[in-house]
Amino acid sequence: MSTTPSWVPEWEDLAAADPEIAEIADREAARLAAGLQLIASENHASPAVRAALASPLSMKYAEGFVGQRFYPGCEHVDRAEELAVQRARNLFGAEHANVQSHSGTSANLAVYAAFAKPDDPVMALSLAHGGHLTHGARISFSGAWFTPVPYEVDQASERIDYEAVREIARIHAPRIIVCGGTSYPRNIDYQVFREIADEIEAILWVDAAHIMGLVAGGAVPDPVPFADVVTTTTHKTLRGPRGGMILCRNEHARAIDRAVFPFSQSGPAMHAIAAKAVALREASLPAFTDYARGMVENAQALAEALAGHGARIVTGGTDTHMVVADLQPLGVDGARAEELCASAGIYLNKSAIPFDPLPPRAPSGIRVGTAALTTQGFGPADMAEVAGLIARACRGEDPGRIAADVAGLVARYPAFPAGHAEPGGRDRGSRIRRGGSSA
Ligand SMILES: *Cc1c(COP(=O)(O)O)cnc(C)c1O
Predict the structure, then answer these.
(1) Hey, whose CA ends up nearest to atom 3 of ligand 1?
(2) Predicted local confidence at residue 429, as pLDDT
(3) Is any ligand 1 atom within 6 A of the Cβ of residue 321?
(4) Are residues 344 and 382 in the same domain?
(5) In this structure, are 206 and 180 located in the same domain?
(6) What separation in Å is there between the alpha carbon of 181 and the centre of ligand 1?
(7) What is the distance between the alpha carbons of residues 223 and 243, in angstroms, rounded to a whole number?
(8) Among residues 283, 304, 326, which one ends one of the domains?
């Protein structure tokens, strides 16, 4: 298709019909472009992904699965879901893929539904040590409806204490063992988790929400061969649309599919599924391997540079796109750092550190991630500058002066390059101009 079809929405459609929302979207784009986006769960999806999200596939009701829908007219959306499933299976070498989850949390809810009954013990990394809300926090369904059995990291190394995991698993015999977290910067030894799960006949579930793009690009160990089930978001390092996805072994395929539909979701978001297919294709291209490696190299450079400014890096470094830094040596807590940085256009978030002496609302640390900046084309040398700007903000320097330097830095790597080219230029595959022909 070389010319823009009539169903493609125009910006003017929104600007004319709803100027208030159009202005909000415009301002948000400007905020994204003007700042340093270091929130580890965020990324910039490609124009192709965003075009799929705006496609008419969003209108179709398609309860059920490919070839077994509850409504007629699904022949085209079926093809989109088929492609998404096939691409997910190929990319990750998975026996089965379910691409319907609306989010990481929805995917996780389905895994609980597939393998556990209310009150069953479920073992996972504690929230305070880098786990996720859906891993048994009392304020989430996961902790309210199931019996959380938390494990922690070792106090000295700040890495998962595998011997403690084994011991706790033997004592509590959980139905499910979860590994993977939301602020754990290190690789996980899936082999050890597999052995522990086998010993007590538990389901091994890897929540790879943050790292699945790194897995796709071969930059971190692959959990798929070891896990019964892997859940992920599609919008973090995988750089797709907001959404979730579940990979599992064939023996669990039926349980997982039924746990998604009809147990915990009804109509799938077919536009999001199509956008997931687009992202999975992008992630299978050779350039994505460079992207994944780039995220890790950038995170390692950022960790080193932050340490140079006096921060203590949790675990002493990172294997992923993410750095957790203890700011106690700088005399600032994570909440204050978050606020000071945001006022200079540097977006990162406060984070507890393991065994944090400070309370969760104002913990000792921050978490930073390199997914978005790497998409924009930032490299390791730029990370020293980024760390310098964070350090200046934490020292309380005038936010206006720091923001001016942020502007200079992001001008080199635009988040929304002109002409709909993709951020990061050559790293992003084809450049297709809207309404023009592909070059
Ligand atoms: C982000 C995240 C989720 C939740 O994803 P949402 O799409 O925000 O619901 C689940 N698990 C982990 C480990 C995460 O990091």
Answers:
(1) 104
(2) 40
(3) no
(4) yes
(5) yes
(6) 9
(7) 20
(8) 283
- Tell me the mean pLDDT in the region 154-171: 98
Angle at 232 between CA 228 and CA 236, to 5 degrees: 155
pLDDT in tens, 96-118: 999 999 999 999 999 999 999 99
Rounded distance from Cα 132 to ligand 1 centre (Å)? 7
Residue 233 annotated in active site:
yes
What is the total count of domains within the chain? 2
> Which residue of the set 194, 236, 239, 392 is catalytic?
236
Q: How far is the CA of 392 from the centre of ligand 1 (A)?
A: 31
Domain with residue 187: its CATH number is 3.40.640.10
Residue 404 lies in domain: 288-410
* Alpha carbons 101 and 433: distance in angstroms, whole number: 31
SS3 assignment, position 72: coil
Do 242 and 103 touch, CB atoms closer than 8 A? Answer: yes
> Which CATH number does the domain housing residue 358 bear?
3.90.1150.10
pLDDT, mean of residues 388-415: 97
Q: Indicate whether 110 belongs to any domain.
A: yes
- 1: in domain: no
- CA 280 to ligand 1 center in whole angstroms: 18
Which of 109, 233, 236, 246 to mutate for ligand 1's pocket (most ligand atoms within 8 Å of CB)? 233
Residue 153 forms part of a structural domain: yes
- 117 secondary structure, DSSP code: -
For a mutational test of ligand 1's pocket, the pick from 126, 182, 246, i.e. the residue with the most ligand atoms closer than 8 A to its C-beta, is 182
Tell me, yes or no, whether 437 lies in a domain: no
DSSP, residue by residue, 264-287: I--S--HHHHHHHHHHHHHHHSHH
